[in-house]
Design brief:
The chain is built from 13 helices and 22 strands. An eight-stranded parallel beta sheet has the order 9-8-7-6-5-4-13-11. A six-stranded antiparallel beta sheet has the order 1-15-16-22-18-20. A six-stranded antiparallel beta sheet has the order 2-3-14-17-21-19, with no helix packed on it.
């Protein structure tokens, strides 16, 4: 959703629309004293058997083709500024080399339908080759990629990127650009009507499905591709007198769910293995449970975004407001009901240097670790705004908190996990395969200790400027605990 050149979000509009239906969530959650004392924060994930024994459906993990439990840690990679022959020119190998160097193994790559199919029925081979080149860099640096069909305010008909102009129908309704308040453009009548036509017009349905068949057929066998995010932050048309939460749930139930089912069938015609990422409307960020229904496919991922309206409008983090707790309570309902993994596709504030933002990163990461198989921060670039890094490639204030030790892949059933800024612990029942640890650059280096019938590839990692990978091999059936901490 984020636009680095136009960053003010329409807080007043959203606040007014949500106020009556979404009262603030009261009270912040308590903290674990032991975790606070040791610097290690429990993930909060109840082991799966304990969930089932208590009668509570759990959230299943993301897995790879070997059955290993995956954890994705990474960032969005984008080029919104260039299009046509210059599309993706701002994305370079440096992006993926630096992602890997900091210990990240995941990228959500933004692509645009208007670049892929600038004229109806004519797909750009040049653009497909550009995507292929970017995926080649990802493969080289061992970064898994989700290809995101991105849109902001529908597309170029409204001065943004996404759905091509030839697929934009407004019925002559008005549109007023709001350069300083871009998110409010979603509530312009012409934009809302364009979404309705995309969801309801049979020829546009076929065109969107055809676009996805082209993308998925081209990259079905690419080793860097983990999956496809079918549309970024979909919105829709409010009915007269309808409040925003009710509209969001109706749009999700009646328009997004059928769309995702159509697009899933289109992808599966050419790619049987990739994960399919489905998003609710952005209103989930206000603690509103989604109205999405089941998407009948064995490899669906629920992929909400994690943005707070007040913080997007420039406010500092207020832990007493309970926003993170409200978001988590709402967002886990869908994956528990439909038994699908969660990967948060975008998150991270614009004003990351405000006084309470260090606390925000601590609380946000602890929350994400409780229920999500992964996340992609917004955005991996070099400079100001939302960029993770400055022009010299150093983490900007507080954003370095995202680089911590973790296990990108666990060969076994995970029983317990705990995350800290400089610590990590996982206990699992081993299955055949190799468990992988990712350890970010550290001035002291790392120590890896293993309990159980298992052996790490190395017990100590020296200080360095690049992330290190450690593998653990275990006897199948053994209970294994792996602990990572500073030397």
């Amino acid at each position: 959703m984020r636009n680095r050149t136009r960053t003010t979000v329409c807080a007043a509009v959203l606040t007014a629309l949500l106020a009556a239906a979404c009262p603030p969530f009261a009270g912040a959650a308590g903290r674990d004293d032991r975790a606070a004392a040791t610097g290690e924060r429990a993930s909060g994930a109840v082991p799966e058997p304990a969930r089932e024994a208590a009668g509570e459906p759990g959230i299943p993990p993301l897995t790879d083709g070997l059955g290993r439990v995956l954890t994705l840690r990474g960032w969005n990679v984008e080029d919104k500024a260039h299009r046509g022959d210059a599309a993706l020119s701002a994305v370079t190998e440096r992006h993926f080399r630096d992602l890997a160097a900091h210990g990240f193994g995941f990228a959500r790559l933004l692509v645009f339908w208007d670049d892929l199919e600038p004229e109806r029925g004519r797909y750009s081979e040049t653009y497909l080759r550009k995507i292929e080149r970017v995926l080649g860099w990802a493969r080289k640096h061992r970064v898994r990629v989700v290809i995101d069909a991105h849109q902001d305010v529908f597309g170029p008909a409204f001065g943004h990127r996404g759905v091509p102009e030839w697929a934009t129908r407004t019925d002559g309704l008005p549109f007023t650009p709001r350069p300083g308040d871009w998110f409010s453009e979603y509530f312009e009548p012409a934009v809302q009507r364009a979404f309705t036509h995309l969801y309801e017009d049979e020829d546009l349905r076929r065109a969107q499905a055809a676009m996805w068949r082209v993308l998925a057929a081209r990259f079905a066998d690419h080793p860097a591709v983990l999956g496809y995010d079918l549309i970024n932050e979909p919105m829709g048309e409010l009915r007269p007198g309808e409040d925003l939460p009710a509209a969001a749930r109706r749009i999700e139930a009646e328009q997004l769910t059928p769309m995702y089912r159509r697009l899933a069938r289109a992808v599966r015609a050419v790619d049987r293995d990739a994960w399919l990422f489905v998003e609710p409307t952005p209103i989930v960020g206000e603690g509103v449970p989604t109205g999405l229904g089941r998407v009948d496919d064995p490899k669906v991922v629920y992929a909400p975004h994690f943005y707070d309206t007040a913080m997007e409008a420039g406010a500092d983090y207020d832990p007493a407001a309970g926003w993170i707790e409200a978001y988590e309570k709402a967002v886990v309902q869908y994956p528990k009901r439909y038994r699908v993994p969660v990967v948060v596709g975008e998150w991270g504030p614009l004003n990351n240097a405000l006084p309470h933002m260090g606390l925000f990163y601590r609380d946000a990461l602890a929350s994400l670790n409780r229920y999500a198989s992964g996340w992609a921060g917004y955005v991996w670039c070099y400079g100001g705004g939302y960029c993770a890094l400055d022009a010299e490639g150093r983490f900007r204030t507080n954003k370095g908190a995202t680089a911590a030790p973790y296990a990108p892949a666990v060969a076994g059933a995970v029983r317990a996990e705990a995350h800290g800024p400089e610590t990590y612990r996982v206990t699992y029942t081993a299955r055949p395969g190799v468990t992988e640890l990712s350890l970010p650059p550290s001035p002291r280096g790392w120590r890896v200790a293993v309990e159980g019938r298992a052996r790490p590839s190395r017990a100590e990692v020296p200080a360095g400027e690049r992330a290190a990978r450690v593998t653990v091999r275990a006897v199948p059936g053994a209970t294994v605990t792996v602990r990572v901490g500073p030397r």
